[in-house]
Amino acid sequence: MTSKPPFYTMDNFNLGGRKVLLRVDINSPIDPKTGRIIDDTRIKSHAETIKELLEMGASVTVLAHQGRPGDSDFTTLAAHSQLLSKYLKTDVKYVEDIFGPSARSSISSARPGDVVLLENVRFYSEENIEKVPEAQAKTFLIKYLAPLFSVYVNDAFATAHRSHPSLTGFPIVMPSCGGRLLQNEVEFLSSVYSATSKPCVFVLGGGKVTDSVQLMETLLPKGIADKVMLTGLVSHLFLIAGGKHLGKATVKIVEGKGLNAMLPRAEALLKRYSDRIMVPVDVAVLKSEARLESGVDNVDDDAPIYDIGEETIKLYSETMSRAKIIIMRGPAGYIEDPRFTKGSEELLRTLVKTNAKSLLGGGHLRAISGRLGIANKIGYFSTGGGAFITFLSGEKLPALEVLITSAQKFKADR
Ligand code: 3PG
């Protein structure tokens, strides 16, 4: 059973002949060596929303981000525009500008049926600052772009947990609605939990450690998660918080990412929820150019941890086999290196053998499932990673909340 979301959708507007500003999330995993997009699912998925808007007779200007400033995947949207053209079967006009003269002139000259893709919105510094929607509405992005459009459509479910100008500024000043993809995610994920969804198990990995800690601080006290199994970088943080000596190489990676500041929060969670938080009992390290298994008590100083170990895979798999619902986000190891994909692959293989309802978030897991030929056995893939888990943890997502505010402020067409 799905229920209608509490904000306007594309069905509430007559978009024929109108200029639509569409925020999407085509932030994609990028191969650090070649710069190629590894998984283009988000691009393909948002292309469906764009097609629908074009069929309605709109001209569509697309606003999107890629990576975060300082990260290796922080780059232009040139490759994205080519893939978008491919999936739309029409030329997308890619403008290397966000709200300057060349962006504004391309928007003004766009006709119904045209698609314009603006440059990575995070190249604009104000976009990277979290503020309340009312403050975001006063930023230059909104001042310059809002007057050029009649409707703002937010389809970026995967970034709905952020309050950045491009996500929460526009709905304050103009009629706005959720795009088709965002609407479908909200409708589906609202219906996930039922009386029979216990035990509910979360498997959290990937690189966004701060997000994971924050989510655990919600999931565990609310009793939503019966077990949280940790992998990847976040598991290293919790192992250190639990007093393990992970060796200098791994500690350096943790420190280099500024994660030491998170240690008190990890310690507090471990103290309170040690019966529900599971950390690896062994790991795989890179030693003399090879993958080696190691215990977690005495990891060599010169051997960075890049994956979970065999015993951990077994232990986590046993827990997964007893679950009624498994929610997984982020890979278990450094999957860019083929020697360290095993943990993620084995957990996914186990997942599809269980009878549990399975929900996966983030592009990396989707890419691995595709490669293993098991993607069709996964219950549901969300386009979101952090947003997906935040939604399932019952927290409010700022970009959705502001669409509700907007619906109270502006009238729909129908
Ligand atoms: C994601 O990939 O989770 C979204 O694009 C959000 O990215 P962010 O965590 O860099 O805001």
3D structure, described in words:
- The chain has 414 residues and is of the alpha/beta class.
- The chain has 2 domains: 10-186 and 395-409, 3-Layer(aba) Sandwich (Rossmann fold), CATH 3.40.50.1260; 194-383, Rossmann fold (3-Layer(aba) Sandwich), CATH 3.40.50.1260.
- Helix content is 38%, strand content 15%.
- It has 16 helices and 15 strands.
- The strands form 3 sheets. A 6-stranded parallel β-sheet has the order 3-4-2-1-5-6, sandwiched between helices. A 6-stranded parallel β-sheet has the order 9-8-7-13-14-15, with helices on both faces.
- Helix 13 (342-353) links the parallel strand 13 and strand 14 (357-361).
- The longest helix has 15 residues, at 41-55.
- It is globular and about 65 Å long.
- The protein binds 3-phosphoglyceric acid.
Give the SSE map.
Elements: E1 19-23, H1 41-55, E2 59-63, H2 78-88, E3 93-94, H3 101-109, E4 115-117, H4 133-136, H5 140-145, E5 151-154, H6 165-173, E6 176-178, H7 180-189, E7 200-204, H8 209-219, E8 227-230, H9 232-241, H10 248-256, H11 263-273, E9 277-278, E10 282-287, E11 290-295, E12 305-308, H12 310-321, E13 325-329, H13 342-353, E14 357-361, H14 363-372, E15 380-382, H15 386-392, H16 398-409
Parallel strand pairs: 1-2, 1-5, 2-4, 3-4, 5-6, 7-8, 7-13, 8-9, 13-14, 14-15
Antiparallel strand pairs: 10-11, 10-12
Main beta sheet strand tally, sense and closure? 6 strands, parallel
Whole-number mean pLDDT: 96
Alpha-beta classification: alpha/beta
CATH fold type of the largest domain = Rossmann fold
Which oligomeric state applies?
Answer: single chain
- Strand tally: 15
How much helicity do the residues have?
A: 25-40%
Number of helices: 16
Identify every distinct bound molecule in the structure, by name, code or SMILES: 3-phosphoglyceric acid
How many structural domains does the protein architecture include?
2
Globular, elongated, flat, extended or rod-shaped: what is the shape? globular
CATH superfamily of the largest domain: Phosphoglycerate kinase, N-terminal domain
**Strand arrangement in the largest pleated sheet:** 3-4-2-1-5-6
- Given as residue ranges, the uncertain stretches (5+ residues, pLDDT < 50) are none
CATH architecture field of the largest domain: 3-Layer(aba) Sandwich
The CATH class of the largest domain: Alpha Beta
Q: What is the beta-strand fraction?
A: 5-15%
End-to-end C-alpha gap? 25 Å
